[in-house]
Amino acid sequence: MTDVITVTGLARRFGPRVLFHDLSFAVHQGEIFVILGGSGCGKSTLLRILVGLLPPSEGRISVLGGDMAAAEAAQRTRVGVMFQMGALFGSMNLLQNVMLPLEMHTSLPETARESVARTKLGLVGLGDAAALMPAEISGGMAKRAAIARALALDPPLLFLDEPSAGLDPITSAGLDQLILDLKRDLGITFVVVTHELASIMTIADRCIMLDKTAQGMIAEGDPRTLGDTSPHPTVRAFFRRETMQDATP
Amino acid sequence: MSATIDIAPGRITLAGELDARHAGAVWTDALTAAAAAKGKPLIVDLTGVTQWDTAGITLLADIETVFGGTPAYAGATEQVRALLDRVHDARKILPRGGAEHVASWWAVLVSFLTAATDGIAFLGEAVLALVTLPTRAKMFRRQDLWRAADQAGVRAIPLVLLLGVLIGLILAFQSLVPMRRFGADLYVANLVAISLIRELGPLLAAVILAGRSGSAFAAEIGTMKVNQEVDALITMGLDPVTMLVLPRLLATIIVMPALTIVLDFAGLIGMALVLVGDGIPAVAIANQIAAWVVPGDLYGALAKSAVFGATIATVGCRAGMATGLGPEAVGVSATRAVVGGIVSAIVLDGIFAIVFYRLGI
Known about the structure:
Radius of gyration of chain A: 18 Å
Structural class of chain B: alpha/beta
Number of strands of chain B: 4
Distance between the termini of chain B: 85 Å
Structural class of chain A: alpha/beta
Oligomer: heterodimer
Largest sheet of chain B: 4 strands, mixed
Largest sheet of chain A: 6 strands, mixed
Number of helices of chain A: 10
Helix content of chain A: 25-40%
Distance between the termini of chain A: 37 Å
Radius of gyration of chain B: 34 Å
Order of helices and strands of chain B: EEHEHEHHHHHHHHHH
Order of helices and strands of chain A: EEEHEHEHHHEHEHEEHHH
Number of domains of chain B: 2
Strand content of chain B: 5-15%
Shape of chain B: elongated
Number of helices of chain B: 12
Strand order of the largest sheet of chain B: 1-2-3-4
């Protein structure tokens, strides 16, 4: 099984404060890999490091065979990122948002860019909303549109930061299904940062769990079995939805 | 290897990497050939395609659209057919109309009238809040009043002094050249003093207030609106007009006459510098001003400036309260506050000119 991401001995410090240290894991091609953990454990920071927005304090990272922090534009376009709030450009409608990377990185003629962008919006269920502005759509639609934009150049690897945050359970379940569909139909590898247990159980093939107190990784594996097999009380508490007192042996 | 195309009668042969980066090289030719083959048998040969993504699949879907049906695909793998089905599903939904972003003259007129009526309604709200202030005195925060007065008034004094001196200098210098031809150098003092005190003082102070404080009011309240702080006030049973608008409104009504006096004084100093430099004694300049400028000129100007201040504050606060969503909304509100404030002040100045003329002031 080919690894699309390998992380070895990764650490990140902010001044004297250690957020995490000695992180090592791999993401396999074609899987949905979830990074989970409580608030403040460094999930989003880890994602920012993986996509090259933040340098690590220590360690080695290989994303699609290269280092994203030093990557040229061509390498960066092989990775799609959906930010937590969508980060759609407010002055452009949804179609223009999705067309932007196609305009910047391909030689497709205008009509072809529009056609491809409409396809992407259709793939995320927003084929009827192309003309709407970001201010006119709901949070769930904004996240779908952000995924469509991240998909614009058909990247083999997609990072999603808290896709379910702030969404109602029905919209959240729809987004989970979309992720599964895109994995099945387009063969995309997903790295998803979330702490929504229902979402994790639905989409994740494998996961790692970060912990603030341990300043690092406390579990790795199939989320469906970790609740029973992990020796760590925080992991068991998380997956069994128990309080820490219940989970402590 | 990039994408290539070979066109023969009844056959389009695509080869190479048919993805977003390379499909542009063959896109137009493929669609032209497919359109030319409409109504005739067409084979699209994909045997030589080595790389696919949804852009390439979208090209096949577009070929079907311009061809008016499904051509015979040669060399299409199961994966390509499955992706093509997925793209067909994705393109089934017809786009619905979005917001119309090209403004027609009618839309502009309606928008102007709506803004005008909204502004009047907002002014009514503010006046009502002022009248009923005793019943909700707790909501009126005096520290906000002093802070707004400090920001709009005290901190504006250096700018007002600088601009006042410069305006006085320029007016005096420009007037002196033609007046000297008639031996009327001394009367430059009358000309500049009356025009400054009656008209330019209040108007320039209003322009400075609109640029400095009207925009600041709109940005402050607009940011609060975007952060849902205004909604929070309402849900707590607090009146945002009393808490946010009234302190700023009263502050500008207080500081505008003071700023006008400062600007007038600075302008007269600037004028005096030019005239003294021209050899006219300072006492002669003072006598001219005292003889020709009557107290009514100053009182009328101060009344005007208070009204300008109230208008600019109302327009600025209204722009802030009407802030929409999105990152550009606060900027739009600040622009509206400045433009609306200056236009309102000039229109009101015209109305005051007519009223003062009729009243013989």
